[in-house]
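Justification of computing resources. Each target in the renewal requires a structure prediction run like the one illustrated here; the chain below, 267 residues long, is used simply to show the kind of job we budget for.
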Amino acid sequence: MLKKFTNRGREDELKALMERKILVMDGAMGTAIQARHLRAEDFGGLSLEGCNENLVLTRPDVIRDVHEGYLAAGADIIETNSFGAIRHVLAEYELEGKTVEIARESARLAAEACRKFSTPERPRFAGASLGPGTKTISVTGGITFDEVRRNYGEAAQAMMEGGADLFFLETQQDTLNVKASLFGIDDAFDKLGRRVPVVLSVSIETMGVMLGGQTAEALYDSVAGFDLLAVGLNCATGPDFMTDHLRTLSGLSQFAISCFPNAGLPD
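Resulting structure tokens:
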């Protein structure tokens, strides 16, 4: 699963920075969008209201402003507005035909903002966000391993073409989906003849397992053979409930550790 081809310059720059400091990510995209109090027409019409991903096409100024605000606040890494920019998710809004356009544009906007704020002493990085989707192989059903692999590969390729520096496969809840998604990302690397680093981040619920039933140990054993930059936790709980699981991962992992907890519901 290890690939020899890479965008070595940016990857080396990222890893060198990781050796010197804890890298700080941006804050939540969803709550930042909610704070703008957008209307249906901003999303492209009433039927598309709430489809944050489509804003990269209909209101790129809003997404650009969010990115630049986080960079101005000191973020080393910002995430693309593409959490649900996956074919089977966008199909719920009848936007599956725009999957590639949305994914590519989300990466372009983030990469553009990073270039604006980067300096030789302080590089900034655009992380392509890919969430768990709305269907999981073993929890909800309704999708196959091959479909997940194909759909994540499609989105990943588009975001690399848009300028993404790394991937965040995040808020993952099902190990089968994780594997299919990682294979899909590898497919994109093969098609483009280059790769970028990948961070895997899962959600451990308060009962101590992912929604698919896997513990942190089981999750790590399942993905240890992949070529990852980091593995860690996000969403689900605040930082207090993550501590023991992060300690477990830290003791097992050959990769760096990531952690970006949520701050509660936006209410």
